[in-house]
Write a structure and sequence with these properties.
about 150 residues
């Protein structure tokens, strides 16, 4: 009986110590995300081709769509569950100030809770993803109706 009492007291003390440690842990400050200038300046060596875009579309469907949405609207199922606001890549303004090098860096290294794809896909495939993301933007050039002659 005495052993049980000692064991129960020990477990209670361990639980209280663990609880106290959790309360003392300082809140983590958000880490500032910076892309090295040399990475931002990188140029995409892979030209967009129909075959390359199709390959990238498949990779996107496997690894990106769950957060970024099927059409790049930023409304994927996981993003909604995590309550994360994502860019709408269909909007040309969402990527106009982001270089291909920056996109490549984010795709390969990750950003915030996003896991990078480095090591999972070949370098050329990640550059194809950059091309694919750029291809998602909607054509906002208003087509003027033809005037009848």
């Amino acid at each position: 009986m005495r052993r049980i009492w000692i064991l129960a007291t020990g477990l209670l003390l361990l639980g209280l110590l663990a609880y106290a440690q959790d309360k003392k842990a300082p809140a983590k400050a958000p880490v500032e995300f910076k892309i090295p200038p040399e990475e931002a300046a990188r140029e995409n060596p892979v030209k967009p081709t129909p075959a390359g875009l199709e390959n990238a579309r498949k990779i996107y469907g496997t690894d990106c769509e769950v957060c970024h949405g099927k059409n790049g609207d930023g409304k994927g199922d996981l993003a909604a569950d995590m309550k994360v606001k994502m860019r709408d890549w269909r909007d040309p303004a969402s990527l106009e100030k982001i270089t291909d090098g920056e996109l490549f860096y984010i795709i390969t290294k990750g950003k915030g809770e996003m896991v990078g794809l480095e090591g999972r896909w070949k370098t050329d495939q990640c550059w194809q993803l950059v091309n694919y993301v750029r291809s998602l933007k909607k054509d906002t050039a208003a087509k003027k109706p033809e005037k009848p002659e």
